Amino acid sequence: MISGGDKKSFCRPSMTSFMIINLDETVIDEEILSCIIDTLVGPQKKFMKIAFVGVKKFADRNELRIISQKKCCPLEFFDDFEKAKQWVLP
């Protein structure tokens, strides 16, 4: 989850962001998916790109794609954090 100090800067709508979410070795259940989607779709924050690392199930990837549709930003899935970083950074 997002800590207090991080939440303040995360929710500042005027700052565009590049985001990498590392879920490698995480058991992704409905609660985690819901939390991620609500957190990323909810704020008025503008994302330039969002990368997920370690999301292996096709069904989980499809659910997370709603973020891209609602935020109109590129979203991609990776098995390797370094590859995600290369994709996200301009």
How do the strands of the widest beta sheet line up side by side? 1-2-3
Strand content: 15-25%
Can you summarize the main beta sheet?
3 strands, parallel
Mean pLDDT: 82
Low-confidence stretches: none
Termini separation: 26 Å
The topology string of helices and strands comes to HEHEHEH
Shape field = globular
Helix percent reads 40-55%
Give the class from helix and strand content and strand pairing.
alpha/beta
Number of helices: 4
Q: Using only CA atoms, what is the Rg?
A: 13 Å
Give the number of DSSP strands: 3
Give a written overview of the molecule.
This protein is α/β, with parallel strands linked by helices and 90 residues long. Helices cover 46% and strands 19% of the residues. It has a three-stranded parallel β-sheet with strand order 1-2-3, sandwiched between helices. It is globular. The model has no long low-confidence stretch (mean pLDDT 82).
